[in-house]
Amino acid sequence: MQDFFKNIVWFLWNFFSVGLLMKTLFVPWQRLREYGRKGDLWSYVEAFIITTLMRIIGAGMRLIFITIGIIATSIVLVIGIVVSLVWFIIPLLMVGGFITGIVFLFI
Amino acid sequence: MKHEFYSLLSLETFFPRSTRRIVEMLLISLISGLVISSFFVGHPYKYIGGAIILACVLVKLFLLDSFFFSTYYRLKREHEQTFPLAHLLWKTAGRNPVHDFCSSYFGSLFLARLGIHPNDFTEAFKNESSTMVIGLEKAKTLSEYFNLLIPSYPALGALIQKYAIQPRQIEAVGAWIERSYDQFVEYDRWWSKEHLARIPGLGKDWAYGQTFVLERHGNFLSGYGAEDFELYKKEIEALESVLSKSQSANALIISDTDAIRLTIVQHLAALIGSGKAYPTLEHKKIFMLNSQETFSEEELTDILYEAERVGNIIFVVDNNSLLPLMTSYFRSSSVQCIALSNTDEYYQKLQSQSEITSHFELIKVDIKDQKSIIQVIEDQVSRVEYKYKIFFSYQAVETILESAETYFQSENLIIKATNLVIEIAPHADKNKISIITKQDVLEFVELKTGIPAGQVKDFEKQKLMNLEQLLHERVVGQDEAIVAISQAIRRSRSGLGKTNRPIGSFLFLGPTGVGKTETAKALGDIFFGANVPTVRFDMSEFSNQEALARLIGDSNTNTPGLLANAVREHAYGLLLLDEFEKASKDVHNLFLQILDEGFFSDVQGKKVNLRNMIIIATSNAGTDIDQLVAHGDFRPELINRFDGVIFFQPLGDINLNKVTRLMLKNLSSRLKEKGIELVITDDLISVLMEKGNDPHFGARPMNRAIADLVEEKIAEGLISGTIKSGSKVSFVKNEVGELILA
Fold first, then answer.
1. Would you list the domain boundaries of chain B?
2. Distance between CA atoms of residues B148 and B191, nearest Å
3. Which CATH class, in words, describes the domain spanning B214-364?
4. Higher local confidence (pLDDT), B557 or B168
5. Among A8, A14, A24, beta carbon nearest to B207
6. B206, A4: Cβ pair inside 8 Å?
7. Chain A CB within 8 Å of residue B49 CB
8. Taking residues B655-674, what's their average pLDDT?
9. Which pLDDT score, from 0 to 100, does residue B53 have?
10. For the segment B458-500, what is each residue's pLDDT rounded down to a tens digit?
């Protein structure tokens, strides 16, 4: 059971590329960037603006995926922890569940 | 031992995984339906109550699954006994062991794979009483259990003999069933890392750039031509894990076959392309540098600089002289490299250069043995069995591999064999064959190649049994030679001959014009049919130093070999080598291998298969083997390689007379097509016997005499108009002994 949750957490982390995207959060989108030309100050400003724009686009897209990834991973992690904690009382929980279900049926 | 498996076995018997899977799916749908419905009704409690009850049942099923997998893998680790055998022992304990075996699921599967018909089995054990077999409980595998039964039950031994089942087949069938079951269980473990790792991730290449310089100096591998994954699985996975490392993630693949090295890399490219590679590699691109191109240091720096900037490039280098120039980049993790090499190059050049090799991890490609090749085919068979609902006996699987090797001309045995499996399945399906046996495979091969591979058919039986007579219709005399050839051919076609050699190989010795070539041609026509052309080489043209290159191909001029081409085109038929003694020593050596192994390698190293040919070499150098050897015409080992050395006797007058009549008969049938009848008179024969008889040259001068004296005159008559369609032509002898038209 622990393996199961460990694998799912590992999978979600990788599926949303959380680690990779965090590491490259501010890398320009598709590494598209401009370089300034020597002696041309304006070209430096241009390059700075374009590169920053690409960084912002890249970071935006990445943040969306990182957030989804972290949320999904956390949910599974929490479920995993809960299941591990209640593992030995699952039979009791099931009996409880049955009784609750039947009670609900007759409300 | 048994009770350890007990709980697992009970679960699998009363509530098997396949049923659980269906119930789980049903429950999930019902729970979802109830929960969604609860939002839209006034009193949702009943719905929620139902959902909670069903959820409890679902949890119970998940727990059963969890129990199954953890117990299965624990028992697999702790015990040597396989699950199929445990299942068999549990289901059947205590009664008649043979009956138990036959009636259990895995036991009956075992017998079916061995090709044993259930009725035969029941029949054989009808009167057999139960015998105690000691040690059955201790057997670890299905085949061990089966082997323990054999000595105790004579009927079983007799059955095995009847079906000609070999010990290795018993071993292999057990292993196949057990392996398939393991794969079946593994397939259901969708949450295993191996399965999850193959699901493609999102946003993997957002952080990498475009490649402009690289594309000018090579190409990205797409996985094209990636075959035999299962066979090279070990190497591909090793490559994947080496390249996934955080440091020195470079691999050096060593194999002596170019194609195999590249296949492994292509497989990795295919895995990445389909998003199935490990997460650490899934954003990578595999780039192969042009192997023909010579790079200046500056160009290489540009390439490497771009690769470093782009950040997700794995280089494939098969020109290892470039490696020293790339060393400084190997330290950075942004450029990775797969170097390709062969054993010689590695040990002679690379191994000593530790500044290079320290950055690489070696991946040596094992030479694949028959067992692992057959496992690849078994897996393929399991897949098509599932798809087409058909069943292969193990003998059929073995025959597929043998046939692929014997009857198909192509480099890669695995591809040939797996293709055969893929092709035979729909064929069997169409013809309503549910169990594919050895015979079905052979018949399919015959259908596909035109080479008689299956059982000897009636008309062929007639031909083989009357081969002497049929040959005599075209060859006069030479009784001894014809008997020897016929016997050798029958031996080969009955399956007694060695399969890894040509169908037959003969050296015909004797003076010129005694019927050597005619016998060879007659044999070709009778054995293969008149439609199959004879591949003929005049070996006197292959006596110089370039002879071998002309036959197998020349690497300098890039010309393909004459023999290689001819045999590839007509892999089934007669290969006639005239004046064989005149061929060069190299050519004789080539045939030494061909006669022994039934194939040779052309200049590109591709195998050319002659196992479906009859090879006949003729020679008029002499009729005494000792004399031929002493004279240096043939080496003794070459003579020994032939299935038969056949001596042709000089033709006497009586035989020459018969030959003359046979030749005239041939001419007569040619003329008949033009509506002209040739009357064969005694005058005609006597003049021809006089003019066309030269003991030194056998029947050859007769051919000339007929051409000069008979054909010439008829031709003149046809042109001048004296002979027309419907004419009857006969010759008489005039007073000076010349033939004139009557």
1. 2-78, 83-188, 214-364, 370-449, 458-647, 653-741
2. 39
3. alpha beta
4. B168
5. A24
6. no
7. yes
8. 84
9. 95
10. 677 888 888 899 888 888 878 888 888 888 788 777 766 666 7
- What are the residues whose beta carbons fall under 8 Å from the beta carbon of B177, sequence distance 6 or more? B84, B106, B109, B110, B113, B142
Cross-strand bridge partners of residue B607: B601
Question: 């292509």: which residue's tokens?
Answer: B266
Reported confidence tier of residue B180, pLDDT bands at 50, 70, 90: very high
Q: Does domain B458-647 have CATH number 1.10.150.120?
A: no
Residue spans of the domains in chain A: they are 2-105
Under CATH, to which class is B653-741 assigned? Answer: mainly alpha
Compute the nearest-CA separation of A103 from chain B (Å). Answer: 7
**For residue A105, which residues of chain B lie inside 8 Å, CB to CB?**
45-46, 49-50, 53
The dihedrals phi and psi of B172, each to the nearest 5 degrees, come to -70, -40
**Which residue in the set B56, B201, B311 is minimally distant from A14, CB to CB?**
B201
Q: Are A27 and A55 in contact (CB under 8 A)?
A: yes
Quickly name the fold that domain B370-449 has.
Helicase, Ruva Protein; domain 3 (1.10.8)
All residues of chain B having their beta carbon less than 8 Å from the beta carbon of residue A65 are 202-203
- Domain B458-647 and domain B653-741 have a common topology: no
Q: Which residue of A has its CA nearest to B70?
A: A1
Mean pLDDT of B15-24: 92
pTM listed for this prediction: 0.69
Residue B169 in tokens: 């087949």
SS (H, E, C) B291-321: CCCCCCHHHHHHHHHHHHHHCCEEEEECCHH
Alpha-carbon distance of B664 to B669, in angstroms, equals 9
Are the CB atoms for B154 and B98 separated by under 8 Å? no
Burial letters B172-191, b for 16+ CB under 10 A, else e: bbbbbbbebbeeebeebbee
